[in-house]
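Exam prep: given the inputs below (a chain plus pantoate), describe the expected output before reading on.
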Amino acid sequence: MRTFSAVDEMRSYIKPLKRAGKRIGFVPTMGALHEGHLSLARTLREHSDIRVCSIFVNPTQFNDRKDYEAYAVNLKRDTELLKGEGVDVLFAPTVEEIYPAGFQTTVTVSEVSKPFEGALRPGHFAGVASVVSILFNAVEPDVAIFGEKDFQQLSLIERMVKDLKFDVQIIRGELVRDSDGLALSSRNARLSPQGRLNALAISRGLFAAQAAFRSGERRAAQLEQLVTAEIHSMPSPEIDYVTLVNEETLEPVTTVSGRCRMLVVARVEGVRLLDNAAFHG
Ligand code: PAF
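Solution:
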């Protein structure tokens, strides 16, 4: 696996490959890799000839400086994991490389950034849209994959790529769950064993709502209630939101029709856990 930290080096490596007709696949990450990231890299195998993965902990998408400073990446471990997956290139730039002195440009995707995570974490999505634009310009991928786990982020990237006419195909990577149902996330490592058990109420709730949906329930309030009831069964439940939305617009729905998503964020031991599930009528 080749590793680059400078944008120029990254481009010089990729350009001849593109000229030779190779299809470049890209998985952007902030490191702390887990099976969810690796499954994205695996999915990309069937869509590209050369797979590039980036590891960059992007300071501009953290609205709390302390969270940024506490974000733990073990580059050595992550590099080994990517090598094990047969990834061809790792792009791991420094903060100074991405945001040199004088940097002053921000990409904003207005509507998709407003609700949910956008409302709770001001500036977060502008940070994501800006860094992904920079990474796309550095890596020049033909295809990039983003996980459905961060569903609002995925919607934002799809909108941005459409609006700014980036020449890159966006693929949706399936949300990966542990065998007990918990959605994989680097944040899970911050849960105590008991906290982890409590957190299973989130996926249990989503599965209960999906079962009710399969049995014919279409009222959003009833389906949301099944999720909140499960979460309320855990000690000190804290829910940021449980909302059924239209998958494309992210607007809340009252009745499920077409493609909808239940977006959930609950806090367990102070850790914000994001989850979601599809309701496709
Ligand atoms: O999902 C992430 O890990 C990050 O938001 C991303 C897309 C790599 C941008 O920093």
